[in-house]
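Example record for the data management plan.
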Amino acid sequence: MIGTNLREFAAALPEGGRLAGLDVGTKTIGVGLCDAMWTIASPAETIRRTKFSVDRALLRDIIARQQVKGLVIGLPLNLDGSDSPRTQSVRAFARNLADLGLPILLWDERWSTQAVTRTLLDADASRARRAELVDKMAAAYILQGAIDALAGAFAFPGPL
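Corresponding structural encoding:
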């Protein structure tokens, strides 16, 4: 299952289970993880992209090691909500991960990198430190937005 519908994503998951958030860039993939109760997301690691087969093997290892039950992948939409060339690239990336057998939620990530960068600037992080942290922190930010929405989806029944 690959889609943008929260209820379908939640229905495709087993009871709870750890989720991974991915911020897919052209040079790196930021990875964030949440607990099995979908309470809080944390930055985990940044994968330097090479060939897709290598990137996928690294992701598969993280998924197995962390017992991940579903993926939340940041979808870089244009500011008006329309697709961009990057959006299509991320959708293709998600389709290429479908054979991992995990439900995949594509989550709007338009403001994630800016929000994380602002937080790091407020913390007076150096440029080098920001570069080191921004991708995995953006992945955690994306994942936190999705798990917050999942919690709200079950608290307030109705269409999402």
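Summary line stored alongside the record: The chain has a mean pLDDT of 84.
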